[in-house]
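Reviewers of the previous submission asked for a worked example of the structure-prediction workflow described in the proposal, so we include one complete record here. The input consisted solely of the amino acid sequence. No template or homolog information was supplied to the procedure at any stage.
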Amino acid sequence: MTSGNEALKGLLPRMAQLSSTLSRGQLFETATATAGITLERPAITILVILESAEGAMRVGEIATRMQVAGPHVTRQLNALEKRRLVRRIADPDDQRARLITLTPEGEKLVGRYLHVIDGWFDQALTGWSQADQRELVHLLGRLVDDLSTHLNTIDGGPADQ
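From that input alone, the workflow returned the following structure tokens.
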């Protein structure tokens, strides 16, 4: 049985195609090699999340954005902290809690990675207007947020919990 919403017909196949495009072959390996980075995908994901945040974050917030359990993030953060790419700071609202923030070295590293990735998107979307590019980012963010919220009500929370 299919959805009665004809406007969304074909969305799932296109999303699957996008997912395959982004995860195919050696794209991650090519991006990290080009940027001179020797980190695994989960570690890079954490750095990207921290870079895009509006300040330091709690482990649970990072885990929610990654849709994984907190211990998975904690293991990655411990390794990133040893490499001096992130640091833990006191939460001003709760001195018992710690927040995670990028170090200057972490900012430089994730900046190199994002420069490579952003270059790929810039080249792929060169024929798009700035307004279309902003609308894409807005709508994709909205889709991810709304779909994640809805799916969390179905399965009881983020993946791996």
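Residues 130-155 form the longest helix (26 residues). We consider this example representative of the routine output the project will generate in years two and three.
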